[in-house]
Design brief:
Belongs to the RAG2 family. Helix content is 6%, strand content 34%. By secondary structure, it is mostly beta strands.
């Protein structure tokens, strides 16, 4: 096993944890960026171009009949073939997080339409599902099983937000483990069926799943409810007869207590397990070989690479399978770098050059190789992996349309990890949630001084009740450095004087003189 450094050129801000990769015909495509797509690449899908250990990105396009694909982070994805022997395949993408931290319950199918040296075009179709549709989630896995000439997808695990009926102000954005149900998805008819198996008692997230034919092996994972990493090894067997499908689960010995691990295929029946965490804030530096036979699985320890001091001493790491027995690993960069969110990357090759040949893709792997949410093994909920595929020499494209983030608007001033004030102590490598509404980013509030600037609510010593009030009320806020200045610039409120209406002139009073008749005149009128 060998370790090689990879440099990201002029686009390192896009290479953040949570990305996903699609491998079509030996070319790797990246999607799921942290923010919303920009004008340079409205689809949010890029071709990864690796030359001379340097990585560049080239925008890809969608066909006119494609649907909109949001930049989902931490989704479950796998390849889908009509049958186990088919050479053509598509990618299934389910769940994940949007840039607004909303969770998706949609399922998309990505196909390669055309590709040349100048342009790559995809077709993306949203699949309508009925029946027991899985709830919105992330950190889960999806695999495809083949049985009796039919194929189905299997979704398991993950995390979701607390249901609305159970939310409180203090724990509004809290996440919970999804129920340990197994979902079968039939893409031919668009229907879903859920199964509750007695062997699966606790929900799992960030586990590893390896599928072969009609069997799926589930390894590791983290449970929020118990705050444990399961040492169990589960074997799911799916039978697809003419009638209703049958799903059985068997608990096997020999599992590994690990979360956020990465699996890469090195042979027809051989895989390598690398990375992940074995305890809170404790990386797992041991590697294992997984061998799948027809009805059994064997896991043995193998020699680990010579990890660099940077990898050994960093608190977190992330990565993904590159295909052909290689893994991309990433660690946080030095805070002294000009780009605060830059990362260092390494390629780990798990087999020798003589073994580097085309793999038999009848076996599938799916792993949520990401660290847990805030409050779990590390305080970095964003440390979930993105993937690369193929070798460096497999790219043969020019650089004319290479994405250059320098062409985009500078958004560093509105980033979450800025130094908001002289007393700012927010550090991306040490930050942990302070307010109950925080999930993976610090809460920020806009100071109305001048043209306005963003500050961290925690640095301003705002209580949670005050923060909620300011977010709901239509009032201006001034940070600690500008509140006194604002008071000095304030002018007294303008007092509106009542306008006096002119009085109307009084009319001249007229008097009427009334005379009473005398008694003599009255009697005369009476007898006339």
């Amino acid at each position: 096993m060998s370790l090689q450094v990879v440099s990201a050129v002029s686009n390192s801000s896009l290479l953040q944890p949570g990305f996903s990769l699609l491998n079509f015909d030996g070319h790797v495509f990246f999607f799921g960026q942290k923010g919303w797509p920009k004008r340079s690449c409205p689809t949010g899908v890029f071709l990864l171009d690796i030359k001379q250990n340097e990585l560049k990105m080239k925008p890809a396009a969608f066909s006119k009949d494609s649907c909109y694909l949001p930049p989902l982070r931490y989704p479950a994805l796998c390849t889908f073939r009509g049958n186990a022997d088919s050479d053509e395949y598509q990618y299934i993408i389910h769940g994940g997080k949007t840039p607004n931290n909303d969770l998706s319950d949609k399922i998309y199918i990505m196909s390669l339409v055309s590709k040349n040296s100048k342009k790559t075009t995809f077709q993306c179709v949203e699949k309508d599902l009925g029946g027991d549709v899985p709830e919105a989630r992330y950190g889960h896995t999806i695999n495809v099983v083949h049985s009796r000439g039919k194929s189905m997808s299997v979704i398991f695990g993950g995390r979701s937000y607390t249901p609305l009926a159970q939310r409180t102000t203090e724990k509004w954005n809290s996440v919970v483990d999804c129920l340990p149900s197994v979902f079968l998805v039939d893409f031919e008819f668009g229907c879903c069926t859920s199964y509750i198996l007695p062997e699966l008692q606790d929900g799992l997230a960030f586990h590893v799943s390896v599928a072969r034919n009609d069997t799926i092996y589930i390894l590791g994972g983290h449970s929020l409810q118990n705050n444990t990493r399961s040492p169990s090894l589960y074997k799911l067997k799916v039978d697809l007869p003419l009638g209703s499908p049958a799903v059985t689960c068997t608990v096997l010995p020999g599992g590994i207590s690990v979360s956020s691990a990465i699996v890469t295929q090195t042979g027809n029946t051989e895989f390598v397990l690398v990375g992940g965490y074995q305890a809170d804030n404790q990386k797992r530096l041991v590697c294992n070989t997984i061998v799948l036979e027809d009805n059994k699985i064997e896991i043995v320890e193998r020699a680990s690479p010579d990890w660099t001091p940077d990898i050994k001493h960093c608190r977190m790491w992330f990565g993904c399978d590159m295909g052909k027995g290689s893994v991309l690993l990433g660690i946080p960069g030095d805070n002294k770098q000009l780009i605060s969110d830059a990362n260092y990357f390494y390629i780990l090759r798990c087999k020798g050059a003589e073994e580097n040949k085309e793999e038999d893709l009848t076996a599938q792997i799916c792993s949520q190789t990401s660290t847990e949410d805030a409050g779990d093994s590390t305080p970095f909920e964003d440390s979930e992996e993105f993937c690369f595929s193929t070798e460096a020499h497999s790219f043969d494209v020019d650089d004319t349309d290479t994405y250059n983030e320098d062409d985009e608007d500078d958004e560093s001033e509105t980033g979450y990890w800025i130094t908001c004030s002289a007393s700012c102590n927010i550090d991306i490598n040490t930050w942990v949630p302070f307010y109950s509404t925080e999930l993976n980013k610090p809460a920020m509030i806009l100071c109305s001084s001048g043209t306005g600037h963003w500050v961290h609510a925690q640095c301003m010593d705002l209580s949670e009740s005050m923060l909620l009030h300011l977010s709901e009320a239509n009032v201006k806020y001034f940070c600690n450095e500008h509140v006194e200045l604002n008071k000095g610039l304030q002018t007294p409120k303008k007092v509106l004087h009542l306008k006096k209406q002119p009085m109307k002139p009084l009319r001249k009073k007229t008097t009427m003189k009334l005379t009473m008749p005398t008694k003599k005149s009255f009697l005369r009128r009476l007898f006339e």
